[in-house]
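Give me C-alpha cells for this 451-residue protein.
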Amino acid sequence: AALNRELQLGPSNAMDMAVRLPFLDRLTRISTIFVRPICCAVNSQAWQVVEQSVGGTNRQAALTGGEDSKGRSARRESTSDREEIRLIRLKKVEELKARGHEPYAQCWRRSHSALELQRIYSELANGQEASDEKDRVSVAGRVAMRRAFGKLAFLTLRDDSGAIQLYCEKGRIPEHKFEQLKALLDLGDILGASGTIKRTERGELSVYVDDFSVLTKSLLPLPDKWHGLTDIEKRYRQRYVDMIVNPDVANVFRKRAKIISRIRKQVEDRGFVEVETPVLQAAAGGAEARPFVTYHNSLQRNLYLRIATELHLKRMVVGGFERVYEIGRIFRNEGISTRHNPEFTSIELYQAYADYNDMMEMAEDLVTGCALAVQENLIINYQGIELSLERPWRRATMIELVREATGIDFTKFGDDTRAAKTAVVSLFSNVLQKGLSSLYVDGNLQMRFQN
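Here you go.
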C-alpha cells in the first residue's frame, strides 16, 4: 500500500503490471516492478542482492525478453501463465457479483458512437466542458488503454467506429465505484459509461464520467501493447483478436461487405436473378479440383462439397432463366496459406445470347463500380504501384500479350508445336543464363533445363 501511494498506483495497476510478466512467479513480479526502482534509487548494488534472492540470471533474462544462461528464449507465454491470469480475473468476476454488479450485462443504452462524438464536438476548445443536459452522453466499448494517477484515471474506450477517452475523477464518481474501476477493471473489458463532454488541456476529447458499468469482464489478456499480434498464423486463426489489437484490420471486412453489396446491385440492375444451388453434390464438377468428401447417413452414400457453382447455374439457363448468378462458398481440398483458403467465395454469372465481349464489358463495369464504392475514385495503390482503373480498358488477345512480353509470335508457328517449344526453351535458357551468371556457374544447368 505504501508503494502504491508512493508511485500513485492503484491495486489494479499493480496487478496489471504484474500479469504482463507471465513468466515470473508472483514474488519475482512484485520485486521486479516495485523493489527494483527503489533499490536502484538508494544503492545501485541493492537490486543485485534482491535479484539473486528471487531467481538470478534466468529471471532477469525473462524480464528483459532476452535469453537465459542456457540460451533459451524468455518471451514464450505458457498455458499455465494464461490460466493463472484467467483465475485472477475470475476472482474479480466473483468480487463484482459480491458487490451486487452483474459482470455480463444484457443491455446498455448508448446515445452516441465514438466517431459521432468526435464529429459533434470537433469545435470544443481545450479545457472546455459541455455540461448542459443536452450534452449528456452514454458510450460503450472495449477498454484499450488505462492510466491511473491518484484521484484521476483515464481510459481509452474503443467501439466499432473509433476511440474516445473516458475522464474519471474521484469525487465526481462515487468513491466505491472509483475504487472498483481501479481494482477490478482490466484491459479488454467491455465498459458502458455516461457523463458530459470535456476536452482536456492537452486537447483530448473525453467523456467526463459520472457513472459506469462493467458490461463484459474479459478473462484473458490482450496481446502485448507494444509488440501487438505479429504471429501471422495466429492473426488468421483468431481474427477476432487481430481486430481488437489492430483496428484497421476491420476495414478489410467493411470494404469486402461494400464490394459484395455493390456487385449484387450492379448485376441485378442488369436483370440478373440471384439463385442458390446445392453445396452437397453427387459428383464434383464444373472445375478441375480435389473435393471434400462427406457422408450422407439417410442416403447411405458419399457426397461432395461443391468445387464450383457452374453446372447448376447452366441448368438454370437451360430451364429458362436468361440471366442468373450466384455468390456462394466454394470448397477445394487443396493447398492452404494466408492467401489461399480451401473455403472461399466466388461469383459466377451466366447470360443467354451474349459472348465474351459482353462479359469483358461487365467485368470492367463491376471492378470500377466496386472501386468507387470503396474509395470513391479509380486510382489505387497496390504494393507501391499506382494503378488507374479509368475506362475504357485496353483489350488484347493472349497471343498479343505473350508477344509483347517475350518477343515470340506464336501465330507464325501454325501447327508446328516442336518449333514453338524450341523457341520457348531457347528464350528461357537465355533468361536463366543471364539471371544466374552472377550467382553461380553450373555447366549442366542449361542441359537439364532443356531436357
